[in-house]
């Protein structure tokens, strides 16, 4: 490499002067982003079959030489933007990702430009304080301690009320790591094998409902308890943990000398949005000396709006709570928080290193499982500043209204059946034409369970094919899952929709149902149902 080569690279790709003098790439990028955020495309799901895309992205070596940025942007447009699921499209209602306020996207660009590393104050000066402030705001929504607690926490030079993490999965892992160290002190240092031998227990368990997010299993595998340590308790018809079954599970584990390290309440569940009976679970956890963790990755943000608070009765009794910003706080991936009722809990994860993280330094990296971390609270801070609590409340109310509108629409259609509704904007339903619905009702009434199970399986095939075809046609997108807690025998495939896309209006919902009806009718004929 000669001096000219490095000078050229610096001038072209590091010097901001060049960009200011010739802002074409910036303008081009902004146009592309603007087009994207405006949801201008006709269809939300990419048209090019996935298999056809593979050859386009199969070169096995990186380019030997660079290209002009403007050419790259064109390639980005043609290859990436054209083939990306448009999650903010009004007819994309299948997952927890949705339209974003553009300021959150702008803030994301600043996060990249500033490139702070939250691990230590030396690389995260004011951003450490912003992170602590965001944690304080969310903690206050959940736990509602006296204001003095928060004033003190914000002013303190060390300690935090929780961790900012890269997603709910990391949040659940962090909470369970703390719970384990709480119940088996010394595990971090000496390992699970040693502490278990001394403990006298014959095993360890974590309890959650059958609707638990699969990240709980990942956490237990990572912590060395093993996935099988997760004991899943059946849910009731509303997809909430069955308290009687929970008590039976605890009694059974106690009888086998298995220590229940943690109990996970979900608020709300990934598949159906249900909120577990948190107050009842908290009382059981306190009685049994079990760490009570609430996975509110999806639903926790609703605590911002006063009208939703009653749904979360008991959450303030949780030892730890996870909330995802990139779900119902409308910020880009990834941004989550794990909060602890007692700020001392995080000391159980505390570590030091000589070159950073010196004792009581106030470095946020002292109590996080992750190392280098982005300044991911900037987008949440920006969105809170720009929307305010009132703006967030309006967004959440809109999601509630849209959920009601879809429920009403479904109630009017003879050939759709609502399977679950929830307070957190997730609904499940399926397409069942009247003659099949009547056939099912007759079979159940006459106790012909085997025939009803067989019919339910046929309906499962119908639902799966319908969702696949709808996705392939690309005009709209809903997801699908399997529930066992329905009035029907055997597992039941359901279409799943998440009503947090604030671009979606009733006419979009009607268009989605019309499309599903057309596909469903064709499939009923094809399958000879
Ligand atoms: C209830 C619940 N917990 C945890 C997670 C995992 O969150 P993430 O995907 O942000 O890691 C999800 C994701 O959908 C979820 O719905």
In short:
The protein has 529 residues and is α/β, with parallel strands linked by helices.
Overview of this protein structure:
This protein is of the alpha/beta class and 529 residues long. The protein folds into two domains: 117-374, 3-Layer(aba) Sandwich (Aspartate Aminotransferase, domain 2); 387-527, Aspartate Aminotransferase, domain 1 (Alpha-Beta Complex). Helices cover 46% and strands 12% of the residues. It contains 17 helices and eleven strands. The strands form two sheets. It has a seven-stranded mixed beta sheet, sandwiched between helices. The chain has a four-stranded antiparallel beta sheet with strand order 8-9-11-10, covered by helices on one side. Helix 7 (125-143) packs antiparallel against helix 8, helix 9 packs across helix 11 (215-222) and helix 14 (377-412) packs across helix 17 (506-527). It is globular. The site of pyridoxal-5'-phosphate has 14 residues, from helix 9.
Fold-level CATH name of the largest domain: Aspartate Aminotransferase, domain 2
Class computed from helices, strands and strand pairing: alpha/beta
What's the CATH architecture of the largest domain?
3-Layer(aba) Sandwich
The profile of the biggest β sheet is: 7 strands, mixed
Sequence of secondary-structure elements: HHHHHHHHEHHEHEHEHEEEHEEHHEEH
Keywords, please?
529 residues; alpha/beta; Aspartate Aminotransferase, domain 2; Aspartate Aminotransferase, domain 1; seven-stranded mixed beta sheet; four-stranded antiparallel beta sheet; 17 helices; 11 strands; globular; binds pyridoxal-5'-phosphate
